[in-house]
Amino acid sequence: MLDTDSERQSLGEFAENAYLNYAMYVVLDRALPHIGDGLKPVQRRIIYAMSELGLSATSKPKKAARTVGDVIGKFHPHGDSACYEAMVIMAQSFTYRYPLVDGHGNWGTTDDPKSFAAMRYTESRLTGYAATLLSELRQGTVDWQPNFDGTFDEPVTLPARLPNVLLNGGTGIAVGMATDIPPHNLGEVAAAAIHLLDHPDAGSDALAEHLPGPDFPTGAEIITPRDELKAIYAAGIGQVRVRATYQQSEREIVINSLPYQASAARIQEEIAGQMQAKKLPMVTDLRDESNHETPVRLVLALRGKNVDHDTLMTHLFATTGLEKTVRVNLNVVGTDGAPQVKSLVGLLNEWLGYRRHTVERRLRHRLGAVTDRLHILAGLHTAYLNIDEVIAIIRGWDEPGPELMRQFDLSETQAEAILNLRLRHLIKLEEFKIQTERDELAAERDRIEATLADPARLTRQIRDELAADAEQYGDNRRTALVERAAATAMSKAERTPAENITAVLSRHGWIRAAKNHDIDPTTLNYRSGDGYLTSVRGRSDQRLLVLGDNGRTFSLDPQQLPDARRQGEPLTSLLAAPTGTGFVGVALGPDTTRCVLAADSGYGLTTTLSALASRQKGGKTALQPARGARALAPTTLTTAADESQIEVCLLADNGRLLIVSLDVLPDQARGRGNKLITLAGGDDHTSSERLIEVRIVTTRDTLIVTSGKRHTRIKPGQRDSYRGKRASRGTLLPRGFRRKPSLTIESTS
Length: 749
Prior knowledge:
Shape: rod-shaped
CATH architecture of the domain at 495-697: 6 Propeller
Strand order of the largest sheet: 14-9-8-17
Number of helices: 20
Largest sheet: 4 strands, mixed
Structural class: alpha+beta
Radius of gyration: 44 Å
């Protein structure tokens, strides 16, 4: 039989209502601060419980366990560890800009905020700043509610004299929403609130003149541009970039402040990891010299005087926790009890409304107390004026109270006050004191009534109280506001000091690099059946290209080449070259280095090393030889010179030499190129003659032609007979040098 008193509800509706109730509980009672006092319920209960225990800033501290016991036993029936952790956060000077709890003992460190000692070992009391939340508590300023079991009353909010919600900020995660309010400077927040009192229509830009950005307790600097900060405060949501600060000397960099909630130990691990991976060769040592007086002092010892400090720090900002993003989400529980993301203007306006209501309640409470006291003083004054009659009534009547009320037209409260007088107060001096007190209270009553009746006067009082508290508890800004460019990590070439190297390529395509230029690559040890092919000199921070016989160019990092003391590594393991590719030469130099690529068919092109570079391991097609033709080793100009003073020497296997000016060869990024020299028999594999060497020289260089054991020198003044137009046949070398000739250069630069 169905119970008529029961309620029928669908499972979906029940689940929806249950989850909604849970979500609102988490939002309002756990995660989000109230706009009035800037506290979550557990924080408010801790502060109130400490005040009830008499733990003011001037009292002797008590065990934290005593406070936690009172909080969870009377107001907050949850876990003691969570309650204690909330208490710890309010005591950490590196978390709260203006701590509410004065902790004695181990309350955590910046490296590990949760390394605090157990509550049975620590002691605590309230800070002086906490008085801004509590001093008006018993003055009728806030509403009260029963605690969880109805045995005590607790304040719904605390009567904050300052916008603590902005000063200390806070974080929290609720159901479907979160809050991230950064801390701010008291003086700046008070100035913005005062400006808003004086100019109710002020916008975000006007407030930004007084409140330019957050002020973190750990210092550092905010590098977010001012316009972006204004936009964040206008929307109530955004991100702020915070960067560590440092000092520098010739051989050291000292990091003296870290971003908000950044761990020095974690940053040390990140830097040390890069040092171990040899990504910071310019840093020789990392020391942590932090102590109690200097909470942050990380020292980077540098390898030499020529290290670019700013470039190094920019790299560390981009790759470590020395720079971080702090979220801003001004999501608070408003005076209407609803959570909402508010702009800075909206938040301050609503808090000022809360403060105005609090001050009005305080004044009305005080006015009531003053009025009651004046009423009692009026009765006492009547008694002093009729002291003999009053004494007679007291002596002659069993119940003198009603008779006093009847005879002197007194209220019950006044009659009770007269009956409670001590005999020693029945002197003339007391009558004078009563009159003086009446005059003072009457003047105070008139001032309060005038303030309550005049909104402008009430506003002035709120402004004066804000200014006074800012003067008493305010301090200088700790976090500088500096607009800086975004941090970028150094490239590997920038991180590694450049040095002279000689890249060596063997006939079978094995490559390696030797430090400096004083090595003879022909004397190196090669694998069995292999030998020296070619080498090139340059620096480790320059571009290295390898040319295949099919005309494809491949890029390599010179710093990744194996040491020349070993036999090297095959290019096939470093590159994704097509099967069957043979490697004919290498080029090394700055990106602007001029380069000539040619095929043995007599065609070629001029370009720069940067145009030949490829980011792909498979390389790129630069030269496209004719069918059956083969690319020759690239040739580059290693010295800077006027192009009109640069020539290209073309040597064919028929013993002909042609010298043409470089400026007659047009630039071409890729392709077959132009005809450099005419060979007998055609331009493809049917030709009976082949181009065998191409060299770039200056007009001051000497050419050395070798054939077998014989050699001859062609000095700069002897070149005219070999100079000709591009694509001509060239001039025969002297007899005895026409069979298997080779060409080397003796540079005079």
